[in-house]
């Protein structure tokens, strides 16, 4: 039996996927509200294909509870934020979960940490924590790290097809966990040691962070000289060994703007490019705010409340708004003016911020300048509704003549 601990964006689809592939699974979360919701047959977030997977997993017998279970394998997928002061990974959620696991785990159980952690964290924090409680790792409890790579918006497909990494002290234990993931994953699964697995995950996100920052820096550079960044990227990418990403209004969510900091926190003198990249990406929402001011001046829009931000989530077609560029931009604006900008996102049902709309037509009726912060399908499909608006398109998706770019 597998007990998945933490039923958030990663734990829930993982638990459902295993239960849909013939594995006995119990999902545990300490949020009573989330567990009640799942028990009542509703998923706790929106994701393409999640509801169908949920139905299959329920038919396969998955159970949800706030209690930890006696199980052969535990999959820990709780949050791993960074400590804003030290910039190091905050392992407290992982250790609290592992501590609870130890109260119920039978001898020889395998604890798989899926949460993203910095290289060496399991040895520095989890192993001593387990051993201080009287358990011998490698005998009473086996530790494994199986970082997750899926992207929100395409999670189900990526769970099924992405290659994976399993890090274990003991090759035989690693192979056993490989078999478990192979029950649903058609991708290649590499078995390695724990620290290598930890390092690969944060390096992957650091790679994305650096490449996004490069595109963002290019956008600023081209804007400074009045050049078209998209045309420049298009031509550069015709080079056989160049593949520049598109710039954007910033980076949000709990991976790319967070995980690279773990490396900077642990290796401050060896991570200059990564640190600079994190800062370039973090500067983008304020840069967009500057573009809004320039465009308002150019187009004679005097009232900031006639400016509307389209999109609140951190990426398109998901409902996760954690640390989104729009929230970062609003925070920066609030410090100067109090929030006057209007905001709309079709994926966010609850009221998150001031001046938030829940209907596209109503939102568009109240603004003159629309800033496309997120490229949800909805705005792509309704581009004609922006015909009489001034548009600042932060993703280069708008075909209307005269649209501004970052
Ligand atoms: N979200 C992503 O796209 C993504 C992608 C790859 C990796 N990751 C990593 O996966 C991990 C989980 O991320 P997430 O986005 O799913 O987080 P999340 O905040 O959505 O979910 C975490 C869940 O764990 C629960 N929880 C916390 N402590 C608990 C405890 N002691 N016992 C039981 N439940 C507990 C919370 O209530 C919450 O439901 C993080 O390390 C993250 O960096 C996330």
Annotation keywords:
binds nicotinamide-adenine-dinucleotide, eight-stranded mixed beta sheet, alpha/beta, 14 helices
3D architecture notes:
This protein has 406 residues and is of the alpha/beta class. The chain has helices at residues 11-19, 32-39, 50-59, 92-102, 121-132, 155-161, 171-182, 194-224, 229-236, 259-266, 272-299, 325-337, 360-365, 377-381; strands at residues 2-5, 25-28, 63-65, 73-76, 109-113, 141-145, 164-168, 189-192, 307-310, 342-344, 356-357, 369-372, 390-393, 404-405. The protein is globular. Nicotinamide-adenine-dinucleotide binds next to α4. Nicotinamide-adenine-dinucleotide is lined by residues 5-11, 28-31, 34, 77-80, 93, 96-97, 100, 115-116, 148, 150, 152, 254-255.
SSE map:
Blueprint: E1 2-5, H1 11-19, E2 25-28, H2 32-39, H3 50-59, E3 63-65, E4 73-76, H4 92-102, E5 109-113, H5 121-132, E6 141-145, H6 155-161, E7 164-168, H7 171-182, E8 189-192, H8 194-224, H9 229-236, H10 259-266, H11 272-299, E9 307-310, H12 325-337, E10 342-344, E11 356-357, H13 360-365, E12 369-372, H14 377-381, E13 390-393, E14 404-405
Parallel strand pairs: 1-2, 1-4, 2-3, 4-5, 5-6, 7-8, 9-10, 9-12, 10-11, 12-13, 13-14
Antiparallel strand pairs: 6-7
Helix pairs in contact: 1-3, 4-5, 8-10, 8-11, 10-11, 11-12
Nicotinamide-adenine-dinucleotide binds next to helix 4.
Mean pLDDT: 96
Helix content: 40-55%
- List the quaternary state of the chains: single chain
Bound molecules: nicotinamide-adenine-dinucleotide
- Major sheet strand order: 3-2-1-4-5-6-7-8
Largest sheet, if any?
8 strands, mixed
